[in-house]
Design a protein that fits this description.
By secondary structure, the protein is α/β, with parallel strands linked by helices. The protein folds into two domains: about 120 residues, Response regulator (Rossmann fold); about 150 residues, Rossmann fold (3-Layer(aba) Sandwich), CATH 3.40.50. The chain is built from ten helices and 14 strands. It has a six-stranded parallel sheet, sandwiched between helices. The chain has a six-stranded mixed sheet with strand order 9-8-10-11-12-14, with helices on both faces. Strands 5-6 form a two-stranded antiparallel ribbon. Helix 4 links the parallel strand 3 and strand 4. Helix 3 runs parallel beside helix 4 and helix 5 packs antiparallel against helix 10.
Length: about 350
């Protein structure tokens, strides 16, 4: 009996061991399959993306910085292999873009309208590479190259923004704040260059201001610069001397000088591209252009094989491609309600803000 019980015990232990080994083997197969799927998935997700700044560079607390944040998000969320190159002068655009193309990046993105000529040139030299350009429509009439009119190559996608929409809301807000405060009914805007991607902001701002306060006067000045803060500050100080109660900056890094002037003189400042409320309590709100979203979505499209050259991707109020930044708590509820009402009317197509001066 003892011997039989011993053998039964041994057999029970062996059976348990065999079951454990079988389970482990099955578990190993699952792990291998999982590892294989992960590897395949990782391979499927591999994407390389490059970004070239304009002369404002990535520390402009505005347009270029937002683009870099989008690239970094693509690196973190999509596993993208990325490279960001700063341009110190306009002459750097072509060499920087060419550098990315030679390294066979899946997509190379130019940050801004100023790179249009460079993107056009390099895209023609590398017809098998993919490019995208922020703030430029490839479906618009041919842009002017340095010497001649040329059509944008079909391996370039335009990333465009309806910034007249959120600027319309901000113009209304600024004009209503001026009306509530009383005094001179004047607000203003300081632009960098008088180019479509700047004037679209200001056109919407003017349009919204006059819609909500017909008696408002909107002063406009251009610094002819996106970097030198002293130039924008001087223009803003002159506008404030003429009665401006709110200064809208549309000049990248240069525009920080305009916001500083507003702070210095106790007036409202309005940021651009990024939420610039961190600059102080004098910031009324910001006309946010989701350049970060555009860059991220472009890298994602390159990853998924859905990037379409020869087309434009539009970012607007409806898809949150443009928005208002943090709004001062000094803005009254009636003004906020009016802005919300107008926003919905724009989304519904009942209001079409002006897009040019």
């Amino acid at each position: 009996m003892t011997s039989r019980r011993t053998w039964l015990s041994v057999l029970t232990v062996l059976a348990a061991l065999l079951l454990a080994m079988g389970a482990a083997a099955c578990g190993g197969d699952d792990d291998d399959e999982g590892a294989g799927a992960t590897t395949a998935e990782t391979q499927a997700e591999e994407v390389t993306a490059g970004l070239v700044s304009d002369v404002g560079r990535f520390n402009d607390k505005s347009f270029n910085q937002s683009a870099l944040e989008g690239l970094n998000k693509a690196k973190a969320d999509l596993g993208a292999d990325t490279r960001a190159i700063e341009s110190r002068a306009a002459g750097d655009y072509v060499p920087n873009l060419s550098s990315l193309a030679r390294q066979n990046y899946d997509v190379s993105i130019g940050v801004g309208f100023l790179l249009a000529g460079g993107v056009n040139t390099v895209a023609r030299q590398f017809p098998d590479a993919n490019f995208a350009i922020i703030d430029y429509s490839v479906m618009a009439p041919p842009f002017t190259d340095a010497k001649k009119n040329v059509e944008t190559p079909t391996n370039v996608q335009g990333l465009t923004f309806a910034t007249n929409e959120n600027s319309y809301l901000i113009g209304c807000m600024a004009a209503m704040m001026a009306k509530a405060r009383g005094g001179q009914q004047v607000i203003s805007a300081v632009g960098g260059l008088d180019i479509p991607t700047v004037s679209i902001f200001i056109a919407g701002y003017q349009d919204g201001a006059k819609a909500c306060n017909p008696g408002i006067k909107v002063l406009v000045g251009f610094s002819q610069d996106f970097v030198a803060q002293d130039k924008c500050k001087e223009i803003a100080l002159n506008q404030i001397a003429q009665g401006s109660q709110a200064v809208f900056q549309v000049a990248g890094g240069c525009g920080l000088g305009a916001l500083d002037a507003a702070k210095e003189k106790g007036k409202w400042g309005i940021g651009v591209d990024k939420d610039q409320s961190d600059l102080g309590a004098h910031i009324l709100t910001s006309a946010v252009k989701r350049v970060d979203v555009a860059v991220f979505e472009t890298v994602k499209a390159a990853q998924e094989g859905t990037l379409e050259g020869g087309t434009d991707a539009l970012f607007n109020l409806e898809n949150d491609g443009v928005a208002l930044g943090t709004t001062s708590d000094k803005v009254t509820q009636d003004i906020l309600d009016k802005v919300d009402e107008l926003k919905q009317q724009i989304i519904d197509g009942d209001i079409k803000p002006k897009s040019s001066l």
